[in-house]
Design goal:
The complex is a heterodimer. Chain A contains five helices and 19 strands. Chain A is of the alpha+beta class. In chain A, α3 crosses α4. The longest helix of chain A has 17 residues. In chain B, a hairpin with a 2-residue loop joins β1 and β2. The chains are: A alpha+beta, B alpha+beta.
Chain lengths: 288, 90
């Protein structure tokens, strides 16, 4: 059964097309849009079956690995980029092969069907890879952070793992504020300013969006304390928590330019906090 | 220590001026999330800006001694320290 599905993530429209049936993990379902869009930002053409790798494996430019796992490898090809993604259970079995053209607009992905016969093209890690390459072609970054909207302002809280991003979300939620997301967010520059968006997760959550009015670099502390950062310090500290494939100078330049401008328009703070709800009023009273 | 090594190191970074400061981002092919970036102090920035393919160690040392009123040995140590810092970022 041919498939034509459009999803909208962070106001980017993504069309998935295939001659086969395509399904999406449940986290993507609230992002599916039913209206027709003439001009999509990217198209992902999905094919059933994994062929032998259709590009030379000689120009490896990036490997996403950790101590125990290989997630994916990226190769430079004649027409753009080639991706080999691995099954996270078996680690060395290829799960998807994908190609992205030089315009960063057209993906081709090959994969085997699921037990129900449908293709699940955005299965991790391909979904997040697609999102990352949207930031390469647009005025945007992806950041590991939580984001709260208090009815007036949208604030991002970012920091190293264990520094309290989820704790901070819960504290604001306990005070009746809206959690945009507490893991991975898009920041985009639009005509009306900077906006933050949630991204599809492994659980169901509706698409959310807020203005970006402050960025807090958080850590646990004996007392609540806040310090405004500026210039290179602000840019470098925010950039450290953005999701990056830093093998290409142009990508880095784009992100540095984006963040340099962002940090002149949106205040950046270093925030030490005690994990109780007093931090909500402390932040509102002490932002400058 | 030679300046060719420093120049080669330099090509593995992207630099961006922000106001009066400079940020360096390493070109890396094996991490998905960077945990460190760094901003350059005045001396490091001076070395960075004055290193090109044809620069010699003596050129930089001379420029540094004139600019910062330091002796050649101190200049040499600063260059060495900066190169080690760059290497540690890759």
């Amino acid at each position: 059964m041919p498939t034509n599905i459009t999803i909208s993530i962070a106001d980017f429209s993504i069309r998935l097309i295939s001659d086969a049936a395509v399904s999406l993990e449940e986290g993507y379902l609230p992002f599916v849009i039913s209206r027709d869009i003439d001009d999509t930002d990217i198209t992902i053409e999905c094919f059933q079956g994994i062929p032998s790798v259709p590009f030379p494996l000689t120009d490896l430019v990036f490997e996403a690995t950790n101590e125990t796992r290989k997630f994916y490898s990226i190769y430079r090809t004649a027409n753009g980029l080639g991706f080999v993604m691995y099954n996270q259970q078996t680690t060395d079995e290829i799960q998807q092969i994908a190609m992205l053209d030089n315009t960063f607009s057209n993906w081709t992905v090959y994969l085997n069907p699921e037990d129900d016969g449908s293709l699940l093209p955005l299965k991790y890690p391909f979904g997040p890879i697609v999102m990352y390459y949207l930031t390469v072609k647009a005025q945007a970054v992806l950041i590991h952070a939580s984001c709260i909207f208090d009815g007036e302002k949208g604030r991002i809280f970012t920091g190293f793992s264990g520094n309290g991003k989820s704790t901070m979300s819960k504290l604001w939620a306990d005070e009746g504020n809206l959690v945009i997301n507490d893991d991975r967010l898009f920041i985009r520059k639009m005509d009306a300013g900077y906006f933050v968006y949630n991204t599809p997760m492994y659980y169901i959550d509706k698409p959310k969006k807020t203005t970006l009015d402050g960025i807090h670099l958080i850590s646990h502390s004996q007392e609540n304390k806040i310090k405004k950062l500026s210039g290179a310090m602000a840019v470098s500290k925010v950039m450290a928590f953005c999701i990056q494939n830093n093998y290409d100078k142009e990508y880095i330049h784009n992100h540095l330019n984006f963040l340099s401008e962002l940090c002149t328009k949106v205040p950046v703070y270093e925030l030490g906090f005690v994990p109780d709800t007093n931090i909500v009023d402390f932040i509102k009273s002490n932002e400058s | 220590m030679d300046l060719q090594t420093l120049y080669k190191l330099k090509t593995k970074f992207v630099a961006r001026e922000v106001g009066n400061e400079m940020i360096l981002v390493p070109l890396t092919g094996n991490v998905a999330q960077m945990s460190e970036l760094f901003t350059l102090n005045e001396t490091a920035r001076f070395i960075w800006q004055n290193t090109n393919e044809n620069t010699t160690l003596a050129d930089i040392e001379n420029l540094m001694t004139a600019e910062f009123d330091i002796d050649p040995e101190t200049a040499k140590q600063d260059i060495e320290k900066f190169m080690k810092l760059l290497e540690s970022m890759l």
